[in-house]
Design goal:
With about 675 residues, this protein is mainly α. It contains 26 helices and six strands. A hairpin with a 2-residue loop joins β1 and β2. The chain is globular and about 85 Å long.
């Protein structure tokens, strides 16, 4: 019993870490209606500023804390609300989720440009005497752990009082439920929303500064990993109850330490279960926790006054414009093939080949998000399944590479179908979180296993050899990728225009109405998941074959987040947008690296930080989703059609005016 209590005491501060982050997530969700996946990124901002002031410039604790938490935290929240989230209060939940994903991609890169790439080791906490030890019998905690415990308890108590006993808490909940109806009751929704965002961002800054000493260095990925554990605690509280969220965080921290104490350190169970515990708990809570039933499906009572979305550009353009568009598309493809054969050097050949492969992978997002209406964050995991399955089957059984890629795609499709079965009961935000939990479990538990990845070096995947055609030649392999991309794009178009696509469209509009006319929701959703996973798996096999190896770092979960942001920004319902996103994913950083703007500061020069600048551009591009949910490409296409129509009308009037009898 004493040993169990010892593990529990050691787990209590870690549980407070989870709880503090979780309470911040719940606060944001309760007061703004936004499930802020960028909360960890906001915590990273304050942690970086505190480190810069406290460690690199030797500021006193109170000065660094004042700037990083008290001033910067609320300021970030105010800017986000004023510039962005107050415009999203009446937007659909999907728009808010995509926006937070865009911030999750962009904010860490913006901070990293300022913060620098040099390692920020040994972050300091807020305890004046960090080496001081507090002892109770045989149990002990250090000063930073005690500070985390005390601050977390005070925050939980204060927020509980705020929401239960103050008028401000009641107004915050009313604004989340319906900003327009709350304004009819003389509540200033903008002012209340700003207060909520400033409060939640202050809490993010506080969490970042308190949690930084837990890491060997200050970096964004650590805060996001903690955020996932915090989301599990928030799910335990039903994304609404702050006391239950606190209890969930404590329980998760204690359970982790108990498992660490009782499981053998070198056992497969310990190495797999312990790091994956938060992800597994989150997945199970989303599926089975009663407190989450029925949440996330409510809508603004006045949402019906919103205008309908505009019709797709393809449905309103003239027959002549349609023919011209198709001729232009064919001409572009022919010119691309000719350039591939006679003009591209090896470097650009590599970039365009990878761009086509990512176009295949991104078409999986077109299926699950554009057609299925769900945001899946596990597409990188499905691509990894296809890549590793292809490599293992080729190496282990000696199968030919090209057919094995399609076999790997079938295995990925089967994994997607199996995942779809339990998550069918989920929608919207909860389904997105479940797919994120699956992606993290895949990366942290399964990928390290040798039967999956063959170890850190990965598994070899050679180029295909089909009869006399040897695809080790880069130009031949690019043409192979182009053919596969065309076939997959055609498949997606056929599905979109066929029965399954129409069923999914009906489900996006109203599941109740779709069920009333006999549409099987389960079959349609499983089909969408399986098809999406299979396409991603095929792309993963192609990518592994192109590089010659599938490794553990090729398909990390964060790539999946980035891919979703890119495709949704350009247009999640468009095959053309997915292909454009794939090519842009490879070309934009390279173009930026060659864009040497000597008249701007070095940290903002694209040639100095091409990867970071491109990530910021793509991340901030997702912020346009609320205004243009059809995507930038579709919006620009519609604008071009409107401009063309206006030009033709002017030419027609001019021609009529200068004809016989038209002059003066």
């Amino acid at each position: 019993m004493t040993e169990l209590l010892s593990y529990a005491v050691r787990g209590f501060p870690i549980g407070c870490v989870f709880a503090l982050m979780a309470v911040g997530v719940v606060l944001t969700y309760k007061t703004s209606g936004v499930f802020n996946l960028a909360f960890g990124a906001q915590a990273f901002v304050s942690a970086a500023v505190y480190y810069e002031a406290r460690v690199r410039h030797d500021w006193p604790i109170w000065g660094a804390f004042l700037v990083a938490v008290v001033l910067l935290g609320p300021a970030v929240g105010c800017v986000l609300d004023w510039s962005l989230f107050r415009r999203l209060r009446t937007a659909p939940p999907l728009a808010r989720l995509v926006t937070s994903l865009g911030l999750l991609v962009a904010i860490p890169q913006m901070v990293q440009i300022w913060f620098g790439s040099s390692p920020a080791y040994n972050p300091l906490g807020i305890a004046p005497d960090p080496d001081r030890i507090f002892r109770w019998s045989e149990y002990a905690l250090d000063a930073n752990q005690m500070a985390t415990i005390v601050v977390t308890i005070l925050v939980v108590a204060a927020l509980t009082v705020l929401f239960r006993f103050t008028a401000l808490g009641l107004r915050m909940r009313a604004v989340v439920e319906s900003p327009r109806m709350s304004e009819l009751s003389s509540i200033n929704a903008d002012r209340v929303g700003s207060a909520a965002w400033m409060m939640s961002s202050f809490l993010a800054g506080l969490a970042g500064v308190l949690l930084a000493p837990l890491f060997a260095q200050v970096e964004a990925n650590g805060f996001f990993t903690l955020l996932v554990a915090a989301v599990a605690a928030a799910a335990f509280g039903g994304l609404s109850s702050i006391p239950l969220t606190f209890a969930g965080g404590i329980a998760l921290g204690v359970l982790q330490q108990v498992l660490a104490g009782y499981l053998p350190a070198d056992s497969i169970l310990s190495q797999g279960l312990r790091p994956a515990l938060p992800f597994l708990v989150l997945f199970l809570l989303l599926l089975f926790w009663p407190a989450l039933r029925g949440l996330g499906r409510t809508a603004d009572p006045l949402a019906g006054v919103d205008p309908p979305p505009p019709a797709p550009a393809a449905s309103v353009r003239t027959a002549g414009m349609t023919v011209a568009t198709r001729v232009l598309a064919v001409t572009t493809i022919v010119l691309f093939v000719l350039a591939t054969l006679f003009w591209f050097d090896d470097f650009w050949l590599l970039l365009f080949t990878k761009g086509l492969i990512f176009g295949v992978i991104f078409l999986s997002i077109t299926v699950i998000t554009g057609m299925g209406g769900q945001v899946s964050l596990s597409q990188a995991a499905f691509a990894g399944v296809g890549a590793f399955a292809t490599g293992q089957l080729v190496q282990g059984l000696g199968l030919p590479v090209l057919p094995t890629m399609f076999l790997g795609a079938l295995i990925a499709a089967a994994v997607g179908a199996v995942l779809a079965i339990p998550v069918l009961r989920l929608d919207g935000l909860y389904l997105t979180l479940a797919t994120l939990a699956f992606a993290l479990m895949w990366e942290n538990v399964l990928v390290p296993q040798t039967w999956v990845s063959s170890g850190p070096l990965g598994v070899d995947v050679p180029r295909p050899l089909v009869g006399p055609i040897d695809f080790t030649d880069d130009r031949a392999f690019l043409l192979l990728c182009l053919v596969i991309l065309a076939l997959v794009g055609l498949l997606v178009l056929l599905v979109k225009r066929g029965t399954t696509g129409r069923y999914l469209d009906a489900l996006r509009g109203s599941e109740l109405a779709a069920a009333s006319i006999g549409i099987d929701r389960k079959r349609a959703r499983i089909t969408a998941f399986a098809l999406s996973a299979g396409i991603a798996g095929l792309g993963g096999g192609l990518l592994a074959s192109q590089t010659g190896r599938a490794t553990t770092t090729d398909f990390v979960f964060f790539l999946g987040l980035f891919w979703v942001v890119m495709v949704v920004t350009l247009g999640d319902r468009s095959v053309q947008a997915a292909i454009t996103a794939g090519i842009s994913f490879m070309l934009v950083p390279e173009i930026l690296s060659r864009l040497d703007l000597t008249f701007v500061p070095t940290i903002l020069n694209p040639a100095e930080n091409p990867a970071a600048i491109s990530s910021i551009l793509f991340g901030l591009g997702a912020l346009t989703y609320a205004k243009h949910p059809e995507g930038i490409l579709e919006h620009q296409t519609r604008a071009s059609l409107a401009a063309t129509d206006r030009l033709l009308s002017r030419l027609s009037r001019s021609s009529a005016g200068s004809g016989p009898g038209g002059g003066s």
